[in-house]
């Protein structure tokens, strides 16, 4: 299949409406350590080893090393240098951007950091971490989509917890695993952590009375406002 036809098919796929949006795709390869490489060739080989481990093929590597040498370049320059179309050049540059190695200013692309290790530590790792945290929050919604009755525990029993100053996911998990329904009484400032799932909170907390101020995520408050009595003011975030 010709390069032009491949690009056309990719553009058509991108234009089709779907149920999801691809924010980023990463491939991490486990490689054997570099061996039997002369000292003269070691630096370039080490960089190519790292880039390949990040799922980047030879053309990605060539473009990265070209940018490293020339500091900045446009898609037109890259296309001319490597005898590819501007769309293909943009695709490869965008994929280098996805892994945090390349950034752009206007039409020009440049390396995010001169140091490859710093680019990975300061750009790629945080991006992957943030994405996984977002997925984990989605998983938490699935975990507590519906309150499950705990065998041997009367779901009508309500336990009063006094003096609570912080409600976080760990605490709710503990109460939930014991089959408890909780009536919270707080006499000082009360904070509800941003890791709290609204459905879990609703399933566990029977009522919340706060004599001072309350700080609570907006999504949680929207769901359980009818259960809350606060005399010091409510701050949502």
In a nutshell, what does this entry contain?
The chain has 237 residues and is α/β, with parallel strands linked by helices. Helices cover 48% and strands 18% of the residues. The strands form 3 sheets. It has a 4-stranded parallel sheet with strand order 4-6-8-10. Strands 5-7-9-11 form a 4-stranded parallel sheet. Strands 1-3-2 form a 3-stranded antiparallel sheet.
Please describe what this structure looks like.
The structure is a single chain. The chain is of the alpha/beta class. It has 2 domains: 3-140, Arc Repressor Mutant, subunit A (Orthogonal Bundle), CATH 1.10.10.10; 158-236. It has helices at 3-15, 39-53, 58-70, 75-82, 86-98, 116-143, 169-177, 198-204, 218-224, and strands spanning 72-74, 102-105, 108-111, 158-162, 166-167, 181-186, 190-192, 205-210, 214-216, 228-230, 234-236. The strands form 3 sheets. Strands 4-6-8-10 form a 4-stranded parallel sheet. A hairpin with a 2-residue loop joins strand 2 (102-105) and strand 3 (108-111). The protein is elongated and about 70 Å long. The model is unreliable at 149-154 (pLDDT under 50).
């Amino acid at each position: 299949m010709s390069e032009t036809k491949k690009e056309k098919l990719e553009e058509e796929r991108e234009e089709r409406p779907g149920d999801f949006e691809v924010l980023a795709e990463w491939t991490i390869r486990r490689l054997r350590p570099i061996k039997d490489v002369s000292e003269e060739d070691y630096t370039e080989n080490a960089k190519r080893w790292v880039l390949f481990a990040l799922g980047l093929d030879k053309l990605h590597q060539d473009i990265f090393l070209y940018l490293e040498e020339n500091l900045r370049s446009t898609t037109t320059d890259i296309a001319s240098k490597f005898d590819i179309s501007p769309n293909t050049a943009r695709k490869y540059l965008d994929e280098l951007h996805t892994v945090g190695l390349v950034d752009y200013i206007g039409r020009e692309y440049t390396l995010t950091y001169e140091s490859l290790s710093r680019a990975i530590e300061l750009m790629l790792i945080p991006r992957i971490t943030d994405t996984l945290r977002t997925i984990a929050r989605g998983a938490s919604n699935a975990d507590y989509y519906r309150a499950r009755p705990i065998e041997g525990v009367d779901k009508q029993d309500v336990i009063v917890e006094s003096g609570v100053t912080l409600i976080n996911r760990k605490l709710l998990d503990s109460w939930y695993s014991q089959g408890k329904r909780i009536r919270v009484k707080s006499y000082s400032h009360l904070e509800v952590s941003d890791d709290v799932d609204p459905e879990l909170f609703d399933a566990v907390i029977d009522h919340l009375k706060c004599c001072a101020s309350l700080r609570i995520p907006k999504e949680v408050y929207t769901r359980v406002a009818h259960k809350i009595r606060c005399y010091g003011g409510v701050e949502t975030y």
